[in-house]
Design a protein that fits this description.
Two copies of one chain form a homodimer. By secondary structure, the first copy, chain A, is mainly alpha-helical. Helices cover 49% and strands 6% of the residues of chain A. The first copy, chain A, has a two-stranded antiparallel sheet. Chains A and B meet through helix 1 and helix 5 of A and helix 1 and helix 5 of B. Chain A binds a DNA duplex through helix 3.
Chain lengths: 133, 133
DNA sequence: TATTTACCTACCATGTCAATCGGTTTTTGA
DNA sequence: TCAAAAACCGATTGACATGGTAGGTAAATA
């Protein structure tokens, strides 16, 4: 599996926030209920989005979350990269991991590189606005 | 990660067999040494390729493996599907798994379907012959 | 008949995923 | 001012996949 629930849930939260994007704050409890996702699990996913400056989180009574940009300004690729950590289809391309010894003579590496480009381009082509009804 | 070592090793074995494809049988011990892969681990991967009629396995002294077709006639997609089981990028598309309740109203499903098509088309476009030097 | 090879089954160690539990801090509004 | 609501934080857990090892059996040939 390529995309885990972390990334998929993050996308659904962003879409939900976009569909209730009237400037007010949206409590995560509401989103969790609407999307039928455990609130506690969502709380583990959201900090990545706040840290990445995608959304703003306001603590305290009456608080909640709010988009920082218009829905058109969020690329799916950015959201997935923040929450999934890495979209590389094979370990060979995972920056940070030990580079493969055989890379120089590897017959398949060029194909993986090409696939990586294809997938990233694919997700670059979608914005949150595209995913809204 | 999308493609595990199972699929990547299977591809490397197929390429190795193609590069030593003179009609004779190739012992898996040789391939394991050349590719620097544990023989025992390879033995776990190969039955799927035999069962899928991609290669022929001959037991006994002097035995080994041999391609059933020309390298041009093997699509990468076929090899990966046999060894990885499923190339679906998200659980929602995994045939056999319980279908998602929200699929009718899901905002993201069309994107996953499109991605799945893109990836499959990508791997359809490569053959073993393309990957040989 | 001994050797070589494919073939088969069980096991294990590690890591990730998905989720839960139990809290603490911040802020507001009653 | 104080209690409620919300974001924030960390430890733990069960299930599962991955990558690999170990120890065989069956078949075929030199």
């Amino acid at each position: 599996m390529m995309i885990s629930t972390r990334g998929r849930y993050a996308l659904r939260v962003m879409i939900d926030l976009a569909e209730h994007n009237d400037g007010s704050l949206v409590a995560m409890r509401e989103v969790a209920e609407r999307q039928n996702i455990s609130l506690k699990y969502l709380e583990k996913i959201l900090p990545a989005l706040v840290k990445g400056n995608l959304i703003e989180g306001v603590s305290g009574k009456g608080g909640g979350y709010r988009l920082n940009r218009t829905p058109q300004a969020y690329r799916v690729s950015e959201i997935l990269r923040l929450t999934e950590g890495n979209l590389a289809p094979v370990a060979c391309l995972d920056c940070g991991a030990a580079p493969c010894q055989r890379s120089a003579e590897c017959r398949t590496l060029p194909m993986w590189v090409e696939l990586n480009k294809t997938v990233n381009a694919f997700f670059d082509g979608y914005t949150i606005a595209d995913l809204m009804k």
